[in-house]
Amino acid sequence: MKLRWVVFLFVLLAGCSSKQDYRNPPWNAEVPVKRAMQWMPISEKAGAAWGVSPRLVTAIIAVESGGNPELVSKSNAVGLMQLKASTAGREVYRYMGWKGQPSTSELKNPERNISMGTAYLSILEHGVLAGIKDPQVMQYALVVSYVNGAGALLRTFSSDRKAAIEEINDLDADEFFEHVVKNHPAPQAPRYIWKVQQAMDAM
């Protein structure tokens, strides 16, 4: 009986700690950032076109693909910024007034991939996340929304978009991050913010 209680307590504590243990396994940003930096001329061009920080774009490339334009994930995310044709790709196409969605070969093209990934960040920032005032909070919100969708993030605050944005504006960057750690349904969400920040610090 006593052993069963100890095992239960261990499992309970392990569950609590793993939810917040976003730094494990360790991740060294140095090599992926170095590889991602080779695409900086394209990131700068796309960043200027869409009003997005090229450093943020480069950090996302480092985290998503390690700078490999040929990478295709198990979930069919493609290229440098690991875009899914049916979600982010379709969203960018619709925004541009185009029909359908990008092909895999289009998403493997570094210039097209970075352009579409940067466009998607801009669409998020000026669309569903519009109204977030603190630039650092906006960056965190963008990063989480990029990887897990803006809806999943906003619902951790309120089912009403406007009310969610107001609640977000009551938080500083550290408080927002803690909220994500404690409340986001996807355990990789805080780790993703952390990795992107690690990548930006390594530039």
Automatic annotation (TrEMBL):
InterPro entries: EmtA, Lysozyme-like_dom_sf, Transglyc_AS, Transglycosylase_SLT_dom_1
A molecular-function term among this protein's GO annotations: lytic endotransglycosylase activity
Record EC number: 4.2.2.n2
GO terms, biological process: cell wall macromolecule catabolic process; cell wall organization; peptidoglycan metabolic process
Transglycosylase SLT domain segment(s): 43-168
Membrane topology reported for the UniProt record: Lipid-anchor
A GO cellular component entry from the record: cell outer membrane
Reactions catalysed according to its record: Endolytic cleavage of the (1->4)-beta-glycosidic linkage between N-acetylmuramic acid (MurNAc) and N-acetylglucosamine (GlcNAc) residues in peptidoglycan with concomitant formation of a 1,6-anhydrobond in the MurNAc residue; Exolytic cleavage of the (1->4)-beta-glycosidic linkage between N-acetylmuramic acid (MurNAc) and N-acetylglucosamine (GlcNAc) residues in peptidoglycan, from either the reducing or the non-reducing ends of the peptidoglycan chains, with concomitant formation of a 1,6-anhydrobond in the MurNAc residue
Family of this protein: Belongs to the transglycosylase Slt family.
Annotated protein name in UniProt: Endo-type membrane-bound lytic murein transglycosylase A
